[in-house]
Amino acid sequence: MAIDRRRFLIGSLVTLAAAHEALAAETLGEPASTLYASGARLADGSYAVLVVAEDGRILREIPMSARGHDIAIDHARRRAVIFARRPGFFALAFDVDGRRAPDVFAPPPDRHFYGHGVFASDGRLLYATEHNADTGDGMIGVYDATGGWRRVGEFPSYGIGPHEAILLSDGRTLAVANGGFGNDPQTGRESIGIAIMEPNVAFIDVATGALRARHGLPAAINLLSVRHLAETPTGDIWFGAQWQGALEDTPALIGRVGRDRPIAILESADSLGVALKGYIGAVAVSADGRLLAASAPLAGRVIYADTESGKIVRETAIKDSSGITLGAGASEFAMSTGQGVVRVEDKAGARTATFSGAEFDNHLRRV
After folding, report:
1. I want to staple 273 with a disulfide (CB 3.0 to 4.6 A). Which of 249, 250, 268, 307 is the partner?
2. What is the arrangement of strands in the sheet containing 68-74, beginning at the earlier edge strand?
């Protein structure tokens, strides 16, 4: 069945009215030390973006007409944008504290979102990963975040199927995980171009849209789709990937790269890629830069790697956990599950909160 982008957008506009009324009726409540945001499926089968506190409170519940994916956070202005799951035809911008009504906006008719985006360092622009439906090329759409979310430009992602994009600490370079294959926007999530995948990580100057560097994978593992990225304080870019071939052939799923350094795949003594079921859901680097955490929801595990040595140092068994982000502590991570649990842990221990009736989606972000 073909995707009706008007249905997605109009449905989102309808739910915004309900969201505005709900937010207007709320009080801000007691401040919470640590807040997180995620898309979620609710008990009645509907979708929403939730802002939750680590102590177990749901502070915001903003309805959506369809499933969301990742969230871009503008920390300084306490606002965020959640993108529809790929192929995505809308994005919803909201105020974390509920002081303003949410907004919905959409890509042009010949584009669709790939579920991720990131704010410029000054918060004035939003960069979104997109697919050019006419040519199949990956694009970065540029949106004015100062009012109206008007699309003001674009530049290439320098690959096919761009997924996560992160703004590096220099404030000028965008690192883009080009997954290597596209999705047919007419039929939904049907993948196209698997056999000829050329995944890469591209480094792009956001001021000019110029390519500064691009690093691809060896032809022998071209079915390894690079999906999610995290930067360390030393400038390394760690990535998590998803294997598009036979499970028994799965290589390692985690690697690192730099603007001036080619991709290096994290190797292990056992068949770690097979054990992780060929799928990394998200990655994050601890605030102190010493640990990488990577979720493997199909395998029910989160693994931790030392960012200096690249060695796996420990793992956590946790069912259906994909979203992972920084906790409040220097070495803490927070992870979310499809059972409505947020678990915050470091090497010393863990604490959990359960949000009844919520099934968290792929990504979790600390507000």
Report:
1. 250
2. 68-74, 79-84, 91-95, 103-105
